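User: I'm putting together notes for a lab meeting next week and I want to include a structural view of one of the chains we've been expressing. I don't have a solved structure, so I'd like a prediction I can at least talk through. The sequence is below, exactly as it appears in our construct file.
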Amino acid sequence: MTSRLTIAALLVAGTAVLGGCASTTSTPYNSNGGYNTGYNNSANAASGYGTIDSIQVVRGSGNTGGGGAVVGGLLGALVGNQVGSGNGRTAATVAGAVGGAVVGNQVEANRNNNGQDMYQINIRLDNGELRSVTQDSVYDLRVGNRVRMVDGRVYRY
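Assistant: Thanks for the context. Below is the predicted structure for the 157-residue chain, given as structure tokens.
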């Protein structure tokens, strides 16, 4: 009976942890970390060119894939299962799983990004639209430069 409660508690904790890893953002980011531009080389070539309005340094967020939370939750449940007996053991297992998941997720976030500085580049396109792209380097880009956007990155033109 106790092993069934332990397994049920682990399943509930694992479901909660994995549910917390789901993305709820509605911001249209592309795979390169910048905003989707809708830039199409053949159909809308003029919209990929513009002038830099501003460049800001932003702190990258430590995104996680959930692996750290899962591993931490399993290790925490294993350690918690070694404490007490009966209902106390079940409670310790659940508490260990939740605590381990939180710690594992934080460790993964710190490991993935370490709060790396990124650059948010705001571009006024030739058609009047304002686009924002976040990338890891600005190289020789300066405010007022004429630029071209390709695949979510900004290059001097």
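A couple of points you could mention at the meeting. The helical segments are 2-20, 67-80, 87-113. The CA atoms of residues 14 and 70 lie 7 Å apart.

User: Perfect, that's what I needed.
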